[in-house]
Amino acid sequence: MGLGNKLLSGKIRNKIGIILSKKLEKNAVSIKDIETEKFQTIKYDDKEHFVCKIKDGYVYSSFGFIFDNKKRLIKEAIAFEYCLSLKHEIGGKFAFYKLRKRKTIKNNSFSLQSAWNLSFAHWLFETLPRLFILKDIGLNDEIDALILGDSCSKKFHNESLSIFGFDNKKIIYISDETEIKSDNMYISSHPSSHIMKPPKWICQKYNKLAEELFKKNYDKHFPKKVYLQRKNVKTRKLLNENELIELISKYGYEIICPEENSLEFQFCLAYNADKIISIVGSGLATVVCSKNTVSVLGIEPYIRPEYENWSFILEQVGGKYYYYTEENEKNFKFHNIHNKNNDFDFYIDINKFEEQLKLFENYNQ
Questions:
Q1: Is the pLDDT of residue 249 over 90?
Q2: Dihedral of CA 130/131/132/136: which sign?
Q3: Which residues touch 16 (CB under 8 Å, ≥6 apart)?
Q4: How many separate helices (H) and strands (E) can be counted in the chain?
Q5: Contacts of 7 (CB under 8 A, 6+ apart)
Q6: For the segment 298-339, what is each residue's pLDDT rounded down to a tens digit?
Q7: What are phi and psi of 104, to 5 degrees?
Q8: pLDDT at residue 354 above 90?
Q9: Calpha distance 342→236 (Å, rounded)
Q10: Cα angle at 97 between 91 and 98, to 5 degrees?
Q11: In the predicted structure, residue 153 carries a pLDDT above the cut 80
Q12: Taking burial as the number of CB atoms within 10 A of a residue's CB, which of 5, 55, 153, 191 is the most buried?
């Protein structure tokens, strides 16, 4: 969290962000208009992606803003329009930019920063795919160190770097108040055009990776029908989950708590599953590893609809997305009226859910 986020109210951050986002946009430049020491490209889904090496590059904050040696913001390295649209975030991160901490490194460093990558879904969808680009172009062996946000040290962060073969690289952590100057900085294009909407090529890459892991774990049990349980979370818990589990168990679903298993297990689980039931959220993100035979029944709270994102993802995978929306406000327990979209727990109407479940079960039969 940046110093501005700690000291300034949301309203003040937003006002400052409106001014600063215009300055950043005015000072932004395309990667094609700056001097690079290396510039290699690859095409996925007919869209060109790149990895390049720049001399004396700068990376700032956990969002991974990349600047060249003339301190111009490089557009393609971030989700440019999305990031600049978050005025309160821009205000919080840049309000005290002059007071930033500074660090210089000599390593051949690769910036693995993207917005919100402390979150599992954003890490899978927008951050790790940078390593697909780096490896496919063939420059991964030139990298000595990865630049990551200081919140990216959770179990799933470390396990995924190991799966991708980058666990032997030095990790240089960066806070929202720190700017790193790298004498030899490697950067990639942002993997997708949108946040929470990974394109088809990313899903295909994950599917291929999961297939290889599944073959390696051939002797382990991965159920075909699975319910992903939000067991170890602070908010958005299902308060009558026992009733739900009792119901879906009759239909042959096995109960799995994703975070209680290794990431490798989660990839294999998603790859092998034909039917997945889950409250929408990061735990469902491994569906990008699934085959085109998968179908998902998402449980969506009315106050936090995510149909657009998950239906898009299942379309890229080649599967099918069904959803049940709990619409009865009386079934919700809000803990913070200022953050109602995130800070709540809820019940679902089991009878209404079963109606949708029956339709879901009959799909492809």
A1: yes
A2: positive
A3: 4, 8, 90, 91, 94, 95
A4: 12, 16
A5: 96
A6: 999 999 999 999 999 999 999 999 999 999 999 999 998 878
A7: -115, 135
A8: yes
A9: 7
A10: 140
A11: yes
A12: 191
- Residue of 96, 90, 83 whose CA lies nearest to 7: 96
Positive or negative CA dihedral for 146, 152, 153, 154?
Answer: negative
- 115: helix, coil or strand? coil
In Å, what is the CA distance from 225 to each residue of 86, 240, 282, 312, 318? Answer: 39, 21, 19, 22, 18
Asked whether the beta carbons of 188 and 130 are under 8 A apart, the reply is yes
**pTM exceeds 0.85, yes or no:** yes
Confidence of residue 58 (pLDDT cuts 50, 70, 90): very high
DSSP SS3 for 216:
helix
Whole-angstrom CA distances from 21 to 2, 26, 83, 94 are 16, 8, 9, 9
Structure tokens at 254: 């096995």
Lookup result for tokens 């002797």: 219
Q: What whole-number distance in Å separates Cα of residue 277 and Cα of residue 219? A: 24
Give the whole-angstrom CA distance, residue 145 versus residue 110: 6
263-277 average pLDDT score: 98
- Amino acid at residue number 364: N
Structure tokens at 300: 């969506």
Short-list 336, 338, 335, 313, CA closest to 323: 313
Inter-axis angle of helices 10-26 and 87-94, nearest 10: 90
Rounded CA-CA distance 122/13 in Å is: 23
Q: How far apart are the C-alpha atoms of 273 and 46, rounded to whole Å? A: 30
**CA 306 to CA 323: how far, in whole Å?**
9
